[in-house]
Amino acid sequence: MSGTPKQGFGPAFRRWRAGRPFWGGLLLTLGGAEILLTEKASLKVIMHIGMQGLAGYLLPVVMVLCGLLTLLSPGQRLFYSIIGVMSSLGTWLTSNLGGFFIGLLLGAVGSCLVFGWLPDQEPRRSRRQRRKEAGAALEAGAVAEAVQVP
Predict the structure, then answer these.
(1) Which of 5, 45, 77, 89 has the fewest C-beta atoms lying within 10 Å of its C-beta?
(2) Cβ atoms within 10 Å, residue 79
(3) Quick one: average pLDDT of 11-32?
(4) CB burial class (10 A; 0-12, 13-18, 19+) of residue 113?
(5) H helices present in the chain, as ranges
(6) pTM (two decimals)
(7) Beta-carbon neighbour count of residue 145 at 10 Å?
(8) Model confidence over 34-72: pLDDT tens digits?
(9) 101, 80 contact by CB (below 8 A)
(10) Using CA atoms, how far apart are residues 122 and 104, in angstroms rounded to an integer?
(11) How far apart are CA 95 and CA 47, in angstroms?
């Protein structure tokens, strides 16, 4: 047997996810997919198709592509987020009020998350870890004060 421990899918996925704006790209992709699905709704549900129907399908496809490209190529995230938020806002006019607001909001929030993501930021510690460190620091401070008092 080899000396290296086997790693499962979970740790590998977490490592991959940590290196890119995962939640922003996912929300942007889901927003575009939701708008595309509302375009295929029955005629009783559709409010309006928009400018000759083409832009109603084009902008959600651009949103999906920007979300997927953000996940696959995080180095260009600023460009993809700007294009994503502009296409999200454009769906207000072109496709069922932005997928009945849901797709529009998902796309705008996802684009903002992608824009604000910092690649060199260290991972956040859990609340439990922060409390444990604060308790240890208080305890060390109390011990240091007790030692210094003559």
Answers:
(1) 5
(2) 13
(3) 89
(4) buried
(5) 9-18, 22-39, 54-72, 77-94, 96-100, 102-116, 127-148
(6) 0.71
(7) 9
(8) 988 887 766 565 555 555 577 778 889 999 999 999 999
(9) no
(10) 31
(11) 8
